[in-house]
Amino acid sequence: MEGLGPVKVAALISRFSDYDSAIVNDGFAPPRTITVTVGINPTYEFGGQSNDMREMLYSYLLGFRQVELHFDTDHMPPVKILGHLELMDPKLFAETNDITFSVVCADPYFQAVTPIVYDVAANGTILGNVTTFDVDYEGDVPVGFILVPDPGPSTSVFYNWTMTLQEDPDRSMTFTGQIIREDYVWYLDTRTGSKKFEFGPSSDPDQREATSFLFGEWLYLDPEVDVLYDVNTFVWTKSAASAAQLATMTYTPKYVGL
Q: Same structural domain for residues 85 and 127?
């Protein structure tokens, strides 16, 4: 099996026209290709020829099908990666009856199979209307998170709060609005591709309504901050001490390789 380590970064380079040099503008992680070679044992549960098993694999694996690969290791949590079957190459005239197939993964990062659910109040410090909490993020790649509070205690709750990364105060986000019913909650998602801030019934996510993002930037868990300061420390300031102090943060660590 190949393609399980960190992918080679693709650099965006601009060359000079009049002399031998260039400028590196940016870089990004391209899609990952995982290649797997398996041997065919025609006696296993078939008792027939190699062709029988090969044709069975064709019917199951051929085509641009979506697959999800899971990996268990002894040094990290179980992880998975989503991809599409790209190639199947049987060794028809070789000594061994091998088949090689490849899976291309648009998102090159492995992610934990089980998301981490973090209790903000249980792991933080509450002083009046300010909650400070540390998140020890052990992934390799920055990831967003979902933050959902417990339902509010009254039928009309104005919320106006700011969350700041203590290690970099310039990174903060502020939201304001009104929760009109006791069983309503606001719902924050800062994950790439699904960023939103909305409110609605806690029991029925489909009934939530989008609301505006006031100002600032979408916060995320940063592995570089974790390396420099051991943890990501968030300072959550509410407009009043009676505002919701209980909330859960859910995030899924991502890794550059196995």
A: no
User: Tens of pLDDT along 80-105?
Assistant: 999 998 888 887 776 777 888 889 99
Number of domains in the chain: 2
The per-residue pLDDT for range 110-167, each reduced to its tens digit, is 999 999 998 887 888 888 788 889 898 989 999 999 988 765 554 445 567 788 888 8
Specify if 51 maps to a domain. Answer: yes
CATH number for the domain spanning 50: value is 2.40.30.200
Last residue of a domain, one of 75, 91, 109: 109
Do 190 and 228 have their domain in common? yes
Q: Quote the pTM value.
A: 0.80
Please give the residue range of the domain that contains residue 45. 10-109
Whether 85 contacts 218, CB under 8 Å: no
